[in-house]
């Protein structure tokens, strides 16, 4: 086992007919990292997560999770990871309590332990008073919290999160962030993808950026910041307060948003207006 990395890929590629959605990605995520995985829409983020979690087979390349080859040891890997996928994949005709008990049993917990943890998680997620309600009747934010609870009920060593804060109110988001930071403190590894770059910058110690299926940056925030600053001369007189990717005011660090925009070569449109929008 190679435990120097918790998540490792070599030449990870996925094709859909003529489209190459993920193109030769080499990822390295160390144990205990809160790792952010970023990219524009359609860059290959969700496809990559689906391959890393065994939901989608790669066209070529190799994946190791916790030192285990995912292709050769799919069940053993899946027992040690938790996943909140893009579509959540909940069972709507179960109650919240039934769903968490089911998830716990599927991960191999005995009946008593699954019931105890399900009750604790429902209370922690402020869903205890909704435990007998059908999942299909939960709001989107409540379903998101339930999906997170199901993903951690077995105490995973690695947690994969695809847009976990989408549709979650500020109070619930604070609860989830505290839980995730507690997991990191206890040695877990978290792999997060989100379009909300402020959240990624606040939570993650390391980041990778994928663009058009290819990995274009990977490292700590400081390493990415230093790399972008070294490669891109300052744009004199251009403030970054509009989020367009310009240079920050003197003495201020580049934000993750500025790093991201410089890396993928994008910027917000400020040269056009829609006259009919008043």
Q: Beta fraction of the residues?
A: 15-25%
The largest sheet, given as strand count, sense and whether it forms a barrel, is:
6 strands, mixed
Distance from N terminus to C terminus (CA atoms, Å) equals 61 Å
CATH class of the largest domain: Alpha Beta
Across the major sheet, the strand order is: 7-8-9-4-10-11
Spell out the helices and strands N to C: EEEEHEEHEHHHEHEHEEHH
- The class by helix and strand makeup works out as alpha/beta
Instruction: Quickly count the helices.
Output: 9
CATH superfamily of the largest domain: P-loop containing nucleotide triphosphate hydrolases
Measured on Cα atoms, how large is the radius of gyration?
20 Å
CATH topology of the largest domain: Rossmann fold
CATH architectural type of the largest domain? 3-Layer(aba) Sandwich
Mean pLDDT: 89
Which term fits the overall shape?
globular
- Can you tell me the number of structural domains? 2
Unreliable stretches (pLDDT < 50, length at least 5) are none
Helix content: 25-40%
């Amino acid at each position: 086992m190679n435990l120097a990395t918790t998540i490792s890929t070599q030449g990870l590629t996925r094709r859909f007919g003529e489209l190459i959605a993920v193109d030769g990605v080499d990822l390295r995520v160390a144990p205990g990292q809160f790792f952010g995985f970023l990219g524009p829409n359609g860059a290959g983020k969700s496809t990559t997560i689906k391959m890393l979690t065994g939901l989608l087979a790669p066209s070529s390349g190799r994946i190791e999770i916790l030192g285990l080859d995912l292709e050769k040891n799919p069940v053993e890997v899946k027992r040690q990871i938790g996943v909140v996928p893009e579509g959540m994949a909940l069972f709507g005709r179960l109650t919240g309590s039934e769903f968490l008990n089911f998830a716990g049993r599927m991960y191999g917990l005995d009946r008593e332990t699954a019931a105890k943890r399900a009750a604790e998680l429902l209370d922690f997620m402020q869903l205890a008073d909704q435990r007998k309600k059908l999942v299909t009747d939960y709001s989107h934010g409540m379903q998101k919290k339930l999906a997170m609870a199901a993903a951690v009920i077995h105490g995973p060593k690695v947690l994969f999160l695809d847009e976990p804060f989408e549709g979650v109110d500020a109070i619930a988001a604070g609860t989830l962030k505290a839980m995730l930071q507690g997991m990191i403190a206890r040695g877990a590894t978290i792999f997060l993808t989100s379009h909300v770059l402020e959240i990624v910058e606040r939570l993650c110690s390391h980041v990778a950026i994928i663009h058009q299926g290819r990995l274009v940056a990977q490292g700590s925030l400081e390493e990415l910041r230093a790399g972008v600053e070294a490669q891109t001369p300052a744009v004199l007189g251009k403030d970054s307060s509009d989020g367009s990717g310009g240079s920050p005011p003197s003495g201020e660090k580049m934000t993750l948003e500025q790093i991201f925009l410089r890396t993928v070569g994008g910027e917000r449109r400020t040269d056009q207006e829609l006259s009919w929008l008043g």
